[in-house]
Design goal:
Number of strands of chain A: 0
Oligomer: homotetramer
CATH architecture of the largest domain in chain A: Orthogonal Bundle
Radius of gyration of chain A: 19 Å
Order of helices and strands of chain A: HHHHHHHHH
Strand content of chain A: under 5%
CATH class of the largest domain in chain A: Mainly Alpha
Number of helices of chain A: 9
CATH superfamily of the largest domain in chain A: Tetracycline Repressor, domain 2
Chain lengths: 200, 200, 200, 200
DNA sequence: GATGAATGAGCTTTCATTCAT
DNA sequence: GATGAATGAAAGCTCATTCAT
């Protein structure tokens, strides 16, 4: 059996268990059982429980980043890019529901119990958005007074909060495509009725 | 000494400790020490560790909701209301930093270890936003095709993500007022340059 | 119940268990059971398993040193002092058999697993011998060419080895008094027949 | 490669590792790595971890016994024999430092974790001393009132304690020859100044 | 009501040993 | 014979919770 097999089996099992119970309530023996290996085997592939979580961050976010970047490269228009990003992000919940749950939850926790860990992969991911915004500003498509540092967080936060909802109650009233369209739409043109005079 | 005194002392101590260590890594004895009471005393006021966290949610969010609702009542214009909400929300990080941290983190966790707990207070809080949006739509100020259920999440998520950042690295480049303005601005009129033709 | 009670109960239980199984094979739960306390209680009084062993060294050797010094002070003649020391040392095996076993065994081990621990109490104990030898040399009773640093080890080693035997097989052919006399005798006048010419 | 090669490689590796870490803290994988064999290979040559230790006792002490006996056979005078024994014993620390450490330490432990194991080789070794004493007494060189069973322990203990010191702090103030001479000297003629009247 | 010493279940992690290759 | 990945029992330690004072 190839090393990578066990490694992957454990990662996938951990995603399942972390999603079900959360990192702290998950027991190593749960993960081992889910992965159909012995408890000790896990320590042949990971240093400790935290290491499993970090590996999930690194490896799985890494894959997602690749996919998203590839999809965005197909587009020219920053406006389209944002919608593509939104659609991709929201699709995660459907396609990799448990992974989405883990990333959701532990992203907020990780800094508490792993003081030293800087989630560079996550930063890389969010920076895809600021790159799009920057490009839109260069093309004069986006307002120059928009702060990319704030806007990227706003856009990501909007998507993330939708994901959170869907992860909690997996019964979406709207489709992913609709929601992605709606969110990128609000982000692009706002909620204000165009016929209304701009506020002071 | 009134009963509520100890209760409050413990709540405030728990907020501090949960913020510092996270819920799971926090020990009851840490909270007891911080509150200057005996470990056992905590169990005179709370059923268990989870109960403390839930009480924080219920009581502290309750206070915030009251404040925000009061502030919003001063305004007539839904556009202003959104900015006021944003400013209020972001101010939390500055004024009650530790509480903000706890709400941030544990909001994502709580459903994992307290399956039965539905965070109604939180729902009530976010619904303030949908009420504003609804009002804006009634006044024909906001687009009718905006889905309030999505928009409220988008707006809240944007603010929440900014809070997350500030909570992590307490060195903000922009002031709360600026950021609140920027986020509500994006939400209201979008990032698109008005001189640019709307996309197809 | 006084704090010192539990502390002492655990120390005495640990001596019993360490003597029976050795430090490494002894389980915390064995000690707890022997002391009739819960496993966790041990950690209220000691930091960890090593800490128990070190406490045994420090506290119990401390008591012994006091006793020996007191007994030796009664004597004027360094030759008598050595015999008193020998009798005291060997009595340990009879009176505190399990303690003797632990000191015996773990003295050799301790430096392996507690690199940083310098057994100052033990050094203090052995230095009682060199003080006696020194005194004997000052009084011209003992040969000047005897190296106190070597002689104290020789004397202690002789006693220690006898203890080891008795600890192993608790059926002594000779009494403590006889053996103490014999060992201090050999140490004082040697094994050589006085009628025999000294060797070259 | 002959079978005995691997056997010897493992024994020698085990001596190194046991000396460095002690028996209990030593891992089989440490020994395997030191011996440059696979973990499993060790179990082709030894039944278990204890078996390695016992083999060290048996085989290595066996070699030493042979050497010492050979050296002593060269001498006629029991007084010389004792000094030769002392020199040989102390030389061990210098020549086979790690082996000396293991014998030192684990000799005291072994009976604890291997109840059934009687260290006959060790007994054989110490009995060399009693044979010398016996011979000395037969030759009327040594006092008849010296108990060989006590004297052999006293002599061995003195040497052993010196070894213990040297093993711990490898910076000897005195040479092996000096120390061997001093110890056998004390053992033979005692520490008492001959010009002093014998004690009562 | 308040205390904090005591409890013991439950967890992560280690490592001697096995066995399919 | 040789390997080393896999096993799983075992143990040290933590800490929420209890309860006698």
């Amino acid at each position: 059996m190839r090393t990578s097999d066990k490694h992957q089996k454990i990662i996938q099992a951990a995603i399942k268990v972390f999603a079900r119970k959360g990192f702290f309530s998950a027991r190593i023996s749960d993960i081992a059982k889910e992965a159909r290996v012995a408890d000790g085997t896990i320590y042949l592939y990971f240093n400790n429980k935290y290491d499993i979580l970090i590996s999930i961050f690194e490896e799985e976010i890494g894959k997602i980043i690749l996919q998203v970047k590839l999809a965005i490269e197909q587009e020219d228009d920053p406006r389209q890019m944002l919608e593509v990003f939104a659609r991709h992000h929201l699709s995660l919940v459907e396609e990799k529901r448990e992974l989405a749950e883990v990333l959701q939850m532990e992203l907020r926790q990780s800094n508490k119990f792993m003081k030293e860990y800087r989630n560079t992969k996550f930063i890389e991911y969010v920076d895809i958005i600021s790159a799009i915004i920057h490009k839109g500003q260069e093309m004069k498509l986006f307002r120059a007074d928009v702060l990319p540092g704030v806007a990227k967080r706003a856009f990501f936060g909007a998507l993330d909060e939708m994901s959170r909802l869907w992860v909690l109650s997996p019964d979406p009233t709207y489709t992913i495509a609709e929601t992605a369209k709606q969110i990128s739409d609000i982000f692009l043109v706002g909620v204000i009725n165009k016929n209304t005079p701009a506020r002071a």
